[in-house]
Amino acid sequence: MVVRLLPVLFACLFSLGCGSVFAQEKEEQDAASDSANVENRVVIDSIIPEKHTIDPLSPSKAAFYSAILPGLGQIYNKRYWKVPLVYGAIGTGLYFYVTNKDQYHRYRNAYKRRLAGFNDDEFYNIDGTPNEDGSPDVSMDALRRAQEYYQRYKDLSLLITIGLYALNIIDANVDAHLKQHNIGEDLTLRPMIIPNDFNAKTTVGLSLSFDF
């Protein structure tokens, strides 16, 4: 009876051993699968820094917008605080140009009427009381000098206004370039102080680093 039970006992022990081996292998496979999933999750959740993109047409666009309408390029560059400065500078130049032009035409019209033989211009009798000798309050020579004076400053005001208009375009173009300037950690320029092993002195210089 005992001899008959021995094969059955061996079969049961073999089955248990195989089952234990299969269970251990399954646990190792599950652990490896969990580890792979964890690694995948870490890779997915990792933050990849985005490189700074450069638009080569941005400076041209900013300059073009400022050429069409002063201050528009500054708005394109999001430098809104510069817009009042642009209009204040150009407006001041235009104000002096218009003022000098009006004064020039006043004296020029009076000078032309004097040449035509009229004595009714605004500079002939300014205070309303004629001179005893009948001479005008502002002579022909004074009218000519006034024309030259206001003509000169009229032209100067126009040149300054054109220069301010061009400066508005240049500012928008340069500002757009500077906004795209690489200031990241991949390109760094920093001062360095290195001890000199030969003469025991300190060497001062600059370090330029490129990281790829």
From TrEMBL:
Keywords: Signal
Coiled coil (UniProt feature): none
UniProt signal peptide: 1-23
Gene source species: Sinomicrobium weinanense
Residues in DUF5683 domain copies: 56-212
Pfam families assigned to the protein according to its UniProt record, in alphabetical order: DUF5683 (PF18935)
Listed name of the protein: DUF5683 domain-containing protein
Keyword match Signal: yes
Matches recorded under PROSITE patterns: PROKAR_LIPOPROTEIN
